[in-house]
Design goal:
InterPro entries: Snake_toxin-like_sf. The chain is an alpha+beta fold. The chain has two helices and nine strands; from the N terminus they run E-H-E-E-E-E-E-E-E-H-E. Bound molecules: 2-acetamido-2-deoxy-beta-D-glucopyranose (NAG) (3 copies).
Length: 154
């Protein structure tokens, strides 16, 4: 039996729609795999050249088993830019976290004007999938795309 779940995410998505995404990912993974077999990278980096931020180095010590209902891996990246009237600096990372998680809401929270703080989260559900940088470029693509269509076929 094949299921096709079509989720249409738009920037204007209400909180209710975000909950729908989160809950459907949570419920389907829980139903398909009663035992939690997920492994994620788990670490906290506070400088960009930390081995947590750059997983190309020996990272075996950062691999952890997820427990209970923490059935998603996530990367959360904190960064900032500063602007003058004519220019904006490239985003500078100041922290990055990888972990197992129960609830994960993908996307960015942005606060500030001249100095903007970004907290960008990405979520995934397969073992060791949270290797990405959670980079702002990806977040930007998401913002530019008016509608993202996500197909999950089980
Ligand atoms: C991972 O999540 C757990 C539970 O929320 C938390 O206690 C732990 O500090 C987190 N680990 C890191 C490296 O952020
Ligand atoms: C990687 O690190 C782990 C523990 O930190 C160590 O046991 C292992 O030998 C290392 N592997 C390599 C190829 O250096
Ligand atoms: C911004 O650009 C304008 C026009 O090019 C220039 O007159 C102004 O001095 C610039 N401001 C700064 C802070 O560089």
């Amino acid at each position: 039996m094949r299921f096709l779940i079509l989720l249409v995410l738009s920037l204007l998505a209400s909180e209710g729609e975000c909950d729908l995404l989160r809950d459907s990912v949570h419920v389907t993974s829980a139903a398909a795999r009663p035992n939690n077999e997920l492994w994620c990278y788990k670490c906290l980096a506070e400088v960009p050249d930390d081995r947590c931020a750059d997983l190309r180095h020996n990272n075996s010590a950062l691999i952890h088993k997820c427990h209970n209902d923490r059935r998603m891996c996530m990367v959360k990246r904190f960064s900032f830019t500063t602007s003058t009237e004519n220019s904006t600096t490239l985003p500078k990372m100041w922290a990055l976290e990888r972990n197992c998680t129960k609830h994960c809401e993908p996307g960015c929270i942005v606060i500030g004007e001249r100095t903007k703080l970004y907290a960008c989260t990405s979520c995934c559900t397969t073992s060791l999938c949270n290797y990405g940088s959670g980079s702002d470029e990806n977040a930007l693509d998401l913002l530019i795309m008016p509608v993202a269509v996500l197909l999950l076929s089980l």
